[in-house]
Design brief:
This protein is an all-alpha fold. It has one domain. The protein is about 70% helix and about 0% strand. The radius of gyration is 19 Å and the shape is globular.
């Protein structure tokens, strides 16, 4: 397998955490509104990231974001953590969870298409084959699940919202990657998530959603895990983007539905079905194929920062010169 092994592990961990968070979200979604749950999720995630970021600033040069870049990062944070979730929740209110999971799993294909069209990545047949194989694994997993919706909304509008959420995820992956060539992943994660928390706080306040819902101790444990997984997962996702092409990183999101299915089987103490085993084989095989292509750095790409390395703005001190 080619590519940075640590980045591959980080991308895979992100996909696994997404699937685990799906299971915990189902345990509390009936007693907390989507806006409230999203606010708590990213507030906890932000708290998880602030500690290491503060220690990093004390040990190294403080990161200084250019105003334009800071505005872009804040906008990406709002889009990815707030707008995407709102669209996805709207789709889930009309369409089945299986339909939403299947369409959302095509995000790697959207990412590759947009990356090739924008010139960020070169077309690779092995990569395309691997991504299609991984998405097929998700389709096998969801085979037989009800695809029709139970909500009263319009299916066309819900499908448009679902596709919109998928495209937002793909576009965010592409737009944030050039910024990660200039700024370390940790402070970038904090800035983007902080903007999302402020937006969600305002959304809850204006819509009358409670910030502190009435939940059991077990449910609060699920909320804490969701927040922890969001903070760790988002940092791992950004850090992987500094070392791998966006389509390769996003491809690991196919592990999410598989992880959720495995965890639900473990909780229910059930044996895995044949479709789950086939799905796991297809997803893992697809991801292995995707990682076989050589990652070619574009001309002018700077050296990537270290895992917890603190950087500065374009001309600021503390940056190591590119080799």
């Amino acid at each position: 397998m080619r590519g940075d092994p640590s980045a591959i592990v980080a991308a895979a961990l992100t996909g696994i955490l997404v699937g685990a968070a799906m299971v915990s979200t189902r345990a509390v979604s009936a007693d907390a509104s989507p806006a409230t749950l999203a606010f708590l999720r990213y507030l906890i995630g932000l708290c998880v990231l602030i500690g290491p970021a503060w220690l990093g600033m004390r040990a190294r040069t403080r990161t200084r974001f250019a105003r334009k870049d800071a505005a872009v990062l804040a906008g990406l944070g709002v889009c990815q953590f707030a707008v995407l979730i709102v669209l996805l929740n709207h789709a889930l209110g009309v369409l089945s969870a299986a339909t939403c999971a299947l369409v959302f799993s095509t995000m790697p294909l959207f990412t590759m298409l947009l990356a090739v069209l924008s010139g960020q990545e070169a077309f690779s047949l092995p990569k395309l084959t691997g991504l299609v194989c991984a998405v097929s694994g998700v389709a096998v997993l969801l085979h037989g699940a009800p695809l029709g919706g139970t909500g009263g909304g319009t299916h066309l509008g819900a499908m448009a919202a679902l596709i919109g959420a998928t495209v937002i995820g793909a576009v965010s992956s592409l737009l944030v990657r050039p910024l990660l060539q200039r700024y370390p992943a940790l402070p970038t994660s904090v800035l983007a998530m902080c903007a999302a928390v402020v937006f969600l706080l305002a959304l809850c306040a204006t819509t009358g959603q409670p910030l502190w819902p009435s939940l059991s101790l077990t449910q609060w444990g699920h909320v804490a895990f969701i927040g922890l997984s969001s903070g760790v997962g988002y940092f791992c996702w950004l850090w992987a983007l500094t070392r791998l092409e966006a389509s390769r990183v996003v491809g690991f999101q196919a592990l999410g539905p598989v992880t959720a299915a495995v965890l639900e089987l473990l909780v229910g103490r059930q044996w895995p079905s044949g479709s789950l085993l086939v799905s796991i084989a297809l997803v893992v095989s697809g991801l292995l194929i995707t990682q076989q292509g050589r990652t070619v750095a574009r001309s002018g790409t700077r050296r990537q920062p270290g895992l917890l390395e603190e950087g500065a703005d374009h001309a600021g001190p503390g940056r190591r010169p590119a080799p």
